Structure to design on (492 residues):
């Protein structure tokens, strides 16, 4: 057993309906703490309080990252019938709590079926869980399964909004230096900039609420377990870093679009890895896919790349693009001095209505929207403009309206140490997609893009091809494009 934890909490369940109850599991150095439940957004609202709640320090168990922490319930929070759908933070305050400690628990309030709105926003909670290193390991340091029944690491839900909070290099050519210093200065998890509400989703929620967009919320696991149906909605929404998807999640969204629903992905690295759920555990073997118990018997369900021939269901069918044809931008040696914006190829597209953007203009460079992880597709040039070849599973109707350069990490540019059994991204992509990691195969996949595009397949799907779109919402052009997409695709 490891040291006792101070001022940490988690909720069970993580997704509820009005009228249900959330149990709150707390460890605190103080004998008593005050608790606030806050619906976060443009105007954070305290909806529930409890003062001087008796608490005690709890042990962080061995392998708690995989098995869950199993702390006793400290108290239960009733979800009032008038609490709107949204992301609710649980804040602990007391003599021993710092800002970084104060917020490690959350839950999502869904909307009852009879009150369905126009837009369903499914938060990337499966990706939060994948990067969460609370209790030891995550998928990037050796875990092949992670539990949702534990706190989120410091910085995932709340952190100061100051220089260095982004992983992408706002100052060109500085690599990740500012981010490393920021993380150290505030004693946050080193993974805080790669996943979590405090990065992209919170920014989008604030922008949407200030501009009158009403969003219904859900978690990825809700789609997987069928707790949240897409019936009645016009638009499925994804924001930020949406990397980990189960087979059932893919089924839910793809059948929704095939039936005439629309999807907007203001996100990147979307549906890169397949996962599965085993009770409260989320399983993903990643590079160690041959160790997956389903490897011999059910290869399609093996938790490897969605683009892997074993699975045969590339994410290009879902979004039109893939991280295997994208990579990174404005990080270390991946496009370190890039503009940070998208080069406009098709200004006549409806996304650009009323923007006055012209061919060759750059969209979103000032706020650096083309940063961190990017998704693209195999392209060729036709009459001076890029078009998708379709050889990687990208739908024939996919229109590339703007793009930005991106490159995957390889054995020469990867800064983080590899997890046990891990492989370098470019070499791994070449092995799985092209059959070998020879120099020639790697060169075929080395030069990628973030691609903003759309296609029709029953309904309309739009993808920004990048994680960092939310950072540009205060830019008038990014704002206008976002409005065009939401307004058009959320019409019932």
């Amino acid at each position: 057993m490891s040291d006792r934890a101070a001022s940490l909490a988690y909720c069970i369940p993580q997704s509820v309906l009005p009228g249900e109850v959330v149990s709150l599991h707390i460890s605190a150095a103080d004998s008593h703490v005050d608790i606030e439940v806050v619906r976060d957004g443009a105007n954070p609202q305290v909806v529930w309080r409890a003062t001087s709640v008796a608490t005690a320090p709890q042990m962080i168990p061995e392998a708690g990252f995989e098995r869950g922490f199993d702390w006793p319930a400290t108290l239960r929070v009733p979800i009032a019938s008038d609490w709107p759908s949204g992301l609710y933070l649980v804040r602990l305050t007391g003599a021993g709590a710092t800002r970084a400690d104060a917020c490690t628990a959350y839950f999502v309030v869904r909307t009852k079926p009879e009150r369905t709105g126009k837009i369903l926003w499914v938060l990337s909670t499966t990706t939060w869980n994948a990067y969460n290193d609370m209790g030891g390991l995550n998928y990037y340091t050796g875990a092949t399964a992670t539990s949702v029944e534990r706190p989120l690491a410091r910085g995932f839900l709340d952190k100061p909004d100051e220089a260095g909070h982004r992983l992408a290099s706002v100052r060109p050519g500085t690599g990740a230096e500012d981010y490393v210093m920021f993380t150290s200065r505030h004693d946050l998890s080193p993974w805080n900039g790669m996943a979590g509400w405090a990065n992209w989703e919170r920014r989008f929620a604030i922008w949407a609420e200030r501009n009158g967009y009403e969003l219904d919320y859900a978690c990825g696991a809700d789609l997987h377990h069928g707790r949240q149906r897409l019936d009645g909605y016009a638009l499925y929404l994804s924001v930020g870093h949406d990397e980990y998807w189960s087979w059932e999640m893919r089924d839910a969204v793809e059948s929704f679009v095939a039936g005439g629903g629309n999807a907007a992905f203001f996100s990147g690295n979307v549906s890169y890895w397949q996962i599965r759920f085993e009770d409260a555990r989320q399983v993903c073997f990643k590079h160690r896919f041959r160790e997956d118990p389903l490897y011999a018997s059910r290869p399609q369900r093996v938790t490897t790349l969605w683009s892997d021939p074993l699975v045969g269901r590339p994410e290009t069918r879902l979004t039109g693009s893939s991280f295997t044809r994208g990579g990174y931008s404005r990080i270390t040696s991946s496009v370190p001095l890039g503009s940070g914006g998208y080069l406009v190829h098709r200004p006549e597209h409806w996304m650009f209505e009323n923007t006055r953007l012209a061919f060759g203009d750059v969209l979103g460079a000032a706020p650096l929207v083309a940063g961190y992880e990017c998704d693209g597709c195999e392209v060729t040039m036709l009459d001076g403009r890029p078009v998708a070849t379709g050889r990687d599973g990208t739908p024939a109707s996919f229109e590339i309206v703007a793009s930005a350069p991106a490159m995957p990490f390889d054995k020469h540019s990867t800064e983080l140490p590899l997890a046990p059994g891990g492989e370098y991204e470019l070499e791994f992509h070449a092995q799985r997609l092209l059959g070998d990691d020879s120099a020639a195969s790697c060169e075929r996949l080395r030069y990628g893009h973030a691609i903003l595009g759309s296609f029709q397949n029953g309904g309309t799907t739009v993808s920004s091809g990048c994680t960092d779109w939310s950072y540009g919402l205060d830019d008038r052009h990014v704002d206008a494009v976002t409005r065009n997409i939401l307004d058009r695709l959320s019409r019932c």
Remarks:
- The first helix runs from residue 64 to 67.
- The chain is about 20% helix and 30% strand.
- The chain has a mean pLDDT of 94.
- Residues 18 and 81 are 5 Å apart (CA to CA).
